[in-house]
Amino acid sequence: MLPPGETILLTLRLAGSIPARAGRELQQQRIAAQEAARTAATPEAAQATTRRADKRFFADFDALLDAATVGGIYLEKEKIAEAVAGEMLMLEEQGLRVPCMVQTTNHVHAVLHLPASSNLSLYKALELLHQRTTAQARRLLRGQLPPEADFWQTGFHVLPVLNGLELARIRQYLLAHPTRLHLPARCHNWPYVYDAAL
Asked: Could you tell me if 158 and 8 are in contact, meaning their C-beta atoms sit under 8 angstroms apart?
């Protein structure tokens, strides 16, 4: 999923955080754009068209998440937010680098880098993160989340980071998230932002 030496922008979101119809429409648009890319004159043009479609999908997907019109906003609860942020940063102890991360009230974006020497499975690491944070959230919510309800949306969204210039743009975008969304300060600033050198 994440080849050693690669960098991605990962998005995890709470269950039900995007209206179902809007999510289906976004997926259909993405599929149509990817199919259109297959008719491009050259492999390079096809790759560029696919990349534009992926970036457009991410922007529209993130706008839906930022609007927070449906689903829970459990990550605004301090103890849950701290548990999730702590688990995200624990990925560093498993061998992933987390150069940048931001957590909003219903989703998390993180830039992840898997060093070339690593044999870590991103999928397994994130599956464990989902399990641990769900268990902690259920304890903290004590009955506010029905037993049959999921905490996290199944799966996650990944956008490969192709180069240093793109990484710089992504970091700038993520670090501006709390201000753009008017997330409340705890002491001085919204605290669930992390930025470290790659």
From this structure: yes
Q: Which amino acid makes up residue 100?
A: C
d(CA 6, CA 50): 19
Quote the tokens at residue 90: 């624990």
Q: What is the DSSP string of 36-103?
A: HHTT-SSHHHHHHHHHHHHHHHHHHHHHHHHHT-SS--GGGSHHHHHHHHHHHHHGGGGT-EEEEEEE
Is the pTM higher than 0.85? The answer reads: yes
DSSP secondary-structure letter at 41? S
Structure confidence at residue 5 (pLDDT): 80
Q: Are strands 107-113 and 157-160 parallel, antiparallel or unpaired?
A: unpaired
Largest separation between any pair of C-alpha atoms in the chain: 57
Task: Indicate the angle between helix axes 78-90 and 122-141, nearest 10 degrees.
Answer: 160
CA 182-51-47 angle, 5° bins? 175
Return d(Cα 4, Cα 113) in angstroms, integer. 8
The pLDDT tens digits of the residues spanning 158-173 come to: 999 998 899 999 999 9
41 CA to centre of own chain: 33
Residue 53's SS3 state is helix
- Beta carbons of 118 and 4 less than 8 angstroms apart: yes
Q: What's phi and psi for 163, nearest 5 deg?
A: -160, 175
Percent composition of the chain: helix, strand, coil (DSSP 3-state, to 5): 50, 15, 35
Other residues' Cβ atoms within 10 Å of the Cβ of residue 101: 23
